[in-house]
Amino acid sequence: MPEDLILDMKGIWKSYPGVSVFEGFDFDLRRGEIHCICGENGAGKSTLIKILSGAHAPERGTILFEGRPVENLNPHSSMQMGIQTIYQEHNLFPLLDVVENLYAGNQITNGLVIDRPTMVRKTREVLEYLHSNVSPFERVGRLSSSEQKVVEIAKALVQEAKVIIFDEPTSSFSQVETDHLFQIIKRLVQNRTSIVYISHHLEEVFRIADRVTVIRDGRKVSTRPIADLTEQTLIRDMVGRDVSLFYQRDRLPIGEEVVFEARHLSGNGVHDVSFTVRQGEILGIAGMDGSGRTELAELLFGVKRAESGEILVRGRRVRMKTPLSAIQRAMCFITEDRQALGLFLKHSLSRNIPIVSYTRTRTPFASPSEDARISQHYIDELKIRTPSVSQLVVQLSGGNQQKVVLAKWFASGGEFFIFDEPTRGIDVGAKEEIYRIMVDLLRRGRSIIMISSDMPELLAMSDRIIVMRDGAASALLEKDDITQETVLRHAIGVA
Fold it and tell me: CA-CA distance, 383 to 473, in Å (whole number)?
């Protein structure tokens, strides 16, 4: 094992019932290196984390850590060796203060007594090292998402981490918070801490990586220095084909019938918005964060009540009192936060997929066999990668979770779809699959409103675009007028 390697994995094999994940996977990590991992959802990134954290054991292969073979790795031994994982979702005790979180299960003692003054002193030192203003005595549940991430990094440091794994750490961060995290990571590697950084944000990869490994279908496709990579090369390695094939969709004839209309809609921070959606059309909604895009969707779906204006479905005025009102009119809402608002993560696919269709049943009793049949139908149709209908949704990749959300609404017989950030948090290859599903909806005569912060997605998928600013529609752009510059100018108010 070369002297500068702290971790070396060779020929790793790992499978789950019905699904093979790793097949001869290789990976190595140098001391003081930022090594980014890229790959489609389901490529094996989460499995790599589970193996290194000791949650899952590989079936074959060798792992060397600091030159010594590692056997029977488990969560305790992984942490004892110096491997710490910072997950996308926070893994802290919200009712405890910062000191208590940093030393949970690892308290410093003076004889039989917990030495809290020493723990407070060391907590102050590590927070100062991280240039954080967080108080050691602050209850963690009161901290912002980025501050909680700093606490998790501090916890790794007090436990003398030699390798820190970051799993999509900036998914809910602003640009300022992301910049601060990167400053912390750079400080860590200067002290020879090694970083494994997993992200679907390619711009972050090019900002921070020393080397990049691409995983596809459980195998290492490539490991390259960042200086030898372009975005086009990286995406091609991830999906196995050229980037020029992305963001293109079939253009289908749009029907004359207006299936949905909003007239002078106000409420929930939205002011006097009017638009129509025709059969077979994708109406894109653009705008900066806080412009009122999601607030508009909540009015349309009855999540929030409109103060004035009206909504028409196929020419008939309707009152969207609740989401149930919208569901009964064959509307579907694919929410931005699929995990918190779109899924029951700790339940199976067969519990998630039929759930909306229950609103249309005439019996108060569920039929497990019918639920399983319906679920299997949409698993096959949407190509959801799962060993069975009994798999817990939390165990699926992000792209497959998004497909379960779609399956839930498809099973309801929906005709009009609102997609709020349909591909947020999923990789390039999974995005293309979602796009194909959306276009297939159009072929079936459905209509779509699509809210997106992804400019290439908006430009490629939308037939028309409404640009929101300060809760109002600042522009309605027809297809021939849609350019990135035009959308941005209207979004920031300089058009």
Answer: 37
Report the candidate in 260, 274, 430 with the shortest Cα–Cα distance to residue 330: 260
Q: CA Rg, the chain, in Å?
A: 25
Q: What are phi and psi of 92, to 5 degrees?
A: -130, 170
Query: 401 with 393: CB under 8 angstroms?
Result: yes
pLDDT digits (tens, 9 = 90+) for 140-194: 999 888 899 899 999 999 888 999 999 888 866 777 888 888 998 999 999 899 9
Structure tokens at 14: 């790992």
The Cα–Cα gap between 458 and 471 comes to: 19
CB 362 within 8 A of CB 410: no
CA distance 298 to 305: 8
Which residue in this structure is represented by tokens 């698993």? 379
- Assess contact for 23 and 218: CB atoms under 8 A: yes
The pLDDT score that the predictor gives to residue 488 is: 72
Among 91, 99, 18, smallest CA distance to 49 is for 91
Q: 26-61 burial, b for 16+ CB within 10 Å, e for fewer? A: ebbbbbebbbbbbbbbbbbbbbbbbbbbbebebeeb
Rounded to whole angstroms, the Cα distance separating 286 from 453 reads 7
d(CA 295, CA 305): 11
What 8-state DSSP symbol labels residue 408? H
- Runs of H (alpha helix) within 226-284: 231-239
Tell me which of 336 and 6 has the higher pLDDT: 6
For residue 352, give every residue at least 6 positions away whose Cβ sits within 8 Å of its Cβ, in sequence order, or none. Answer: 343, 344, 375, 393, 404, 407, 408
Give me 367's structure tokens.
């039929």
d(CA 432, CA 438): 10
Q: 78: helix, coil or strand?
A: helix
Residue 194 to residue 88: CA distance in whole angstroms: 18
Spatial distance between the Cα atoms of 235 and 217, rounded to a whole number of angstroms: 14
pTM of the entire structure?
0.60
Give the closest residue to 426 by CA, choosing from 411, 448, 404. Answer: 404
Q: Identify whether the C-beta of residue 194 lies closer than 8 Å to the C-beta of residue 29.
A: yes
> Distance between CA 385 and CA 393 in Å, rounded?
11
Q: Predicted confidence band at 200 (pLDDT cuts at 50, 70, 90)? A: confident
Contacts of 339 (CB under 8 A, 6+ apart): 345, 401
Assess contact for 347 and 408: CB atoms under 8 A.
no
Task: List phi, psi (to 5°) of 334.
Answer: -90, 100
Percent helix / strand / coil, the chain, rounded to 5: 35, 25, 35
A 10 A CB-CB count for 182 gives 17
